[in-house]
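Everyone, describe these C-alpha cells:
***
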Amino acid sequence: MTIGKEKVLLLSIMRNEGPYILEWLAHHFTLGIDDLLIFTNGCTDNTDKILDRLEVMMPHRVKHQPNPKVMFPDRGKWHIMALRFAGHFGRYKAADWLYVTDADELLNLKGDVDTLDDFFQATGPADVVSFTSVAFNSNGHKSASPDLVCKRFTETSSQFDAAAAQNKPVITAVKTLYRNAVQGPRRPHRPVTNTFSQTGFKWINGSGAQMPPDFTDGSGKAINALGSRDYGQVNHYAIKSAAEFLLKVDRGDAVQTDRLGASEQYWNHANRPGDTDLSGAEISSAAKDMLEHLLADSELRELHEESFGLREAQLADILKTETGESLARAIGYFD
C-alpha cells in the first residue's frame, strides 16, 4: 500500500504501549503506510520487545530504535531529538511522504475513504494534509481490556454537534502528513516552513479545503474541527480507561516525564462528555486479517499477551502508593 507508487514513512515515539501496538500497526499499514520508524524510551511492558520482534518479522517495514535522548536525559526534548535523529536513516531519506503520530492516535479515514489513495481521490492532489485531532473520553470504562481500542472508546470529549448548531468553533490540534520535499523543521504536529505559500505546494485539511498562508507559513498546530473532517481525522485516545490513565501517569509522558503535571485536572478535561462518534469504531477487514496474521506468530503473541500482565502488576503497585490511590479515587477508579 502506498500513495500511488510513493512511499509513506510513519514516525513515532513510544513508552509502555505494549497492548496497543499491533492494532495500531495493522490499522496504519492497511491505510497506506509503508514503513515505521519507532523510537522508544525506557519501556517496562514489552513495548521494545514487541517492536524488536516486529522488526525481525518485517525488516523492510519496521525499524525500532532507542530514542537518542535516553543517553542525554538533561538535553533537548524527546520528540524533537527523535525527529532530528530520524533524518539520518536511509528509510527516512528514501520516503516520499512523512507522517508523525503517537501510539494513542489512529488516523480515521471516513465514509467511502478507506486508504490514503482514496483520500486523495476524494480531495484531489495535495502535498500536505493536516488532519484534525479528535479526543475521546473514557466512555465510563474503569478497567483495561484486551478489546480493540477503537471499539472501546466511541465518545468524544468535545460537543461538536452543539458547537456547530451555535456556529462556535472548536479548536483542536492537528497531525500532519506531508511530502518529504517540504522544507523546514519537523515538529510533532507539522513541519514549520515560513515560506510555504511561495513554494507551489498545496496544503489541505481533512475535508480537502486549502489551508491559508497564515497557517501554512506560521507554526500554529491547531485548527477548527468543524468543517475540517469530512474525509479524515485523527482519533486521539488520550486517557482510555481509569486504570490505563493511572498507568500513563505513572510511566510519565512519552514526550517529557513531567508534562501530565496536575493529573486530576488532565483527566477531568479529557473526560468531558461529548458526542458519539462511530466513524472509526471498527478496523477494516484488511487490518483484521493483518492483526490475525501477526498474532499467528507464537513469539509475538506471547509478548503481546504478557504485556497485559506486566501492566496489571504495575497497576497493583501504583494503587499501593498514597499518591496512586489518591489519584485513583479522584478519577473514580473505585466507584
Notes: The radius of gyration is 19 Å.
